Amino acid sequence: MKKLMTAGLCLVAVSAWGRTAPAVDSLLERIDKGLSQKILVEVDSAPTAVKGRTPGGDWFCLGEKDGRPLVTAGNDLSAAVGINHYLKYYAGVHLCWGNMHATMGDSLPVPQATECHNSTADLRYYLNYCTHSYSMAFWDWDRWQEEIDWMALHGINMPLAVTGTEAVWRNVLLRLGYPADKIDEYVAGPGFQAWWLMNNLEGWGGPITPAHYERQKLLQQKIVARMRSLGMEPVFAGYAGMLPHDAAETLGINVQDPGEWFGYKRPAFLQPESKDFARIAAIYYDELNKLYGVTRYYSMDPFHEGGSTKGVDLARAGKAIMEAMKANNPDAVWVIQAWRKNPRLEMIGALDKGDLLVLDLHAETEPIWNGRGFAGHNWLWCMLHNFGGNIGLYGRLKTMGPDYHHALAESDDIRGIGLTMEGIETNPVVYEYMSELPWTDSVPDYGKWLENYAAARYGVRDEKVGRAWRLLGNSVYACPAGNRQQGTAESLFCARPSDNPRQASAWSKYTPYYHIVPLAAAARILTENADRYRGNANYIYDMVDVVRQVTADKGREVAARFALAAKEGDKEAYRRESQKFLELIRLQDELLGTVPDFRLGRWLDRALSLSDDPAERDNFNWNARVQITTWGNRQPSERGKLHDYAHREWQGLLADYYLPRWQRWFDWRLANWTADPATAPDAFDAEYPWSQQTNPYPSAPDPDADPIATARRILLRVLAL
């Protein structure tokens, strides 16, 4: 990769011809009204004393002008990154999920010396198809505005933008003559659109109403316009041959059956060498262009997660997909995920270099770039990190920096980074670190970075709090190389009950790598010093999150005890430890109810607020509930083992779903002590009805709830169990 200018060069003089940046000023105003008058922004200024910097590049400098902080940058997006750097490390303001607004004083600190940074990454990708369902399924424009602002502040220049793709498909299928009522059976519901778009399933979670098609179309148009105004190039879903499974009968098109995905019928696959492929692809891109415009990047992942390639000429398929995309935009780039067997080297090997961009989706854990590679195509070093939107402290902060810079040094084809998590709004420290990596010319000093992060996050340097972060940074956030677990260790509160639970989902590959002792010590520090931070949303969130993790880890210890009791046939010990386990779930539910971020009600309210139509609201409520519990109906849930894949440690869900599930198990087990646990009553039959309930869950905590007092009391009790 071509290495860009190093960070930290000093700006001696700034030319006076820099333009203002209206889109960036609007971003500042959304952070705090009047902030655009307090922070000056100049874009396209060419710092005359910095060799090699030209207008339009990915660089920013912080300085001073007329007694105010000044951000100069090569483009609007770099200016936003500079603003974020200034806010964190000069003003002590950390904007993050759940806290994207700030109240700034009239007089802001001014940099005493000029600080400059260039990006080592030309491309900075964001999102996973799964994120659009696990986290974003029910977002409105207000929430999307905050997320796009977050993207800008963190330098994202190519976000995956697939909201509203269902409207494109509706128009395509109508033009092809596909029956309108069957379209409703084909398009998935909002909680499951990601897997429909990745060719894994049809219809699950539907039907989509005409009102929702229109709602999502208008929302995507706003999303794309805002992204482009800030200098981002959206990544749209392209066409790779997907059609409804019954296309042969309904449309007279010869298609291939790619099989099933965890019990779901996959959409059909239209052979790219088919005479119909170019025609249908042209219709698809025409409808996409009409609604959202032409972009440079199109995401396509044929044969995702086990789709059958039987009878497919992969080389011809790759060329046909590429040719159809290029017919729409000759400058277009095909974006493809490196995940499991994808991308097939036979499919991409003959494609021209520069026309394909590979996302090494899980490079922080299981890199592919230095294994089978990508046939010389450009690629991005990506961090997957989160699976299923699960809650839990977890990160690989100690290895990410060295691994990314190693890739920069070793690969000529790396073009940047990607944040490809399945769910967001957890572990902000990990995403802050990853987002800063492209703006550093060497691996950051880990200890110093953590110290600066804590000061930026809470707005003050505090040695005690810094010690808590060192404890966290060297334990739960230091998952080592060689550990291949998928995401957080997973709370056993969310596991389907058994006498020896190990993980909540079937895919976690959990491997212990930290001890509860340093985590508990960090929790003590955060709770003991919390009075100083009353009203500090970031601090309160972190304190509750760390105590939540201690509670979950204590649950793992207690589960090991009742597992041993079961093995030894000690019924009284089993009874005693099972009661402790249930108490821990109750305590965690109470703790998480003190802040809005960990409340089930927030997720459900977002789903319900999308529509006033009772039937549609019921469907959205069911989408939201079933996704985080059984995920599917019986076959995908049980045979496909998708149940609890998207489990969440949320107030309300703990009390009304996980707690009764464990209570049923313990009651049955103690009443049938000598029975084979394999003969326990069917779990799915007891679980699925919860997804059909419509009882409300408040999204806001009780006004009298005191998270500090609650966290202190619960931490003491948890550690005593």
Number of beta strands: 16
Radius of gyration: 26 Å
State the major sheet: 8 strands, parallel
User: Largest sheet, order of strands side by side?
Assistant: 6-5-16-15-14-13-12-7
Roughly how much helix do the residues carry, as a percent range?
40-55%
* Model regions low in confidence, pLDDT < 50 over at least 5 residues: 1-17, 48-53
| Number of helical regions | 25
Q: Structural class of the helix and strand makeup?
A: alpha/beta
- Overall 3D shape: globular
Strand content: 5-15%
Mean pLDDT: 94
- The N- to C-terminal Cα distance equals 53 Å
How does this model look, in words?
This protein is of the alpha/beta class and 721 residues long. Helices cover 43% and strands 9% of the residues. The strands form 4 sheets. Strands 6-5-16-15-14-13-12-7 form an 8-stranded parallel β-sheet, covered by helices on one side. A 4-stranded mixed β-sheet has the order 1-3-2-4. The longest helix has 32 residues, at 537-568. It is globular. The relative contact order is 0.08. Residues 1-17 and 48-53 have low confidence and may be disordered.
Which SSEs are present, and which pair or pack?
Elements (H helix, E strand, L loop, with lengths): L21 H10 L8 E4 L15 E7 L2 E6 L2 H14 L25 E4 L4 E4 L2 H6 L6 H13 L4 E2 L5 H12 L3 H7 L6 H5 L12 H20 L5 E3 L4 E2 L3 H5 L8 E2 L2 E2 L2 E2 L7 H16 L4 E3 L14 H15 L4 E6 L6 H4 L7 E5 L17 E6 L13 H14 L3 E6 L8 H9 L9 H13 L4 H11 L42 H13 L8 H32 L2 H22 L7 H9 L5 H14 L6 H6 L13 H19 L11 H5 L19 H14 L1
Parallel strand pairs: 1-3, 5-6, 5-16, 7-12, 12-13, 13-14, 14-15, 15-16
Antiparallel strand pairs: 2-3, 2-4, 8-11, 9-10
Helix pairs in contact: 4-8, 5-8, 5-10, 10-11, 15-16, 16-17, 17-18, 17-25, 18-19, 18-25, 19-23, 19-25, 20-21
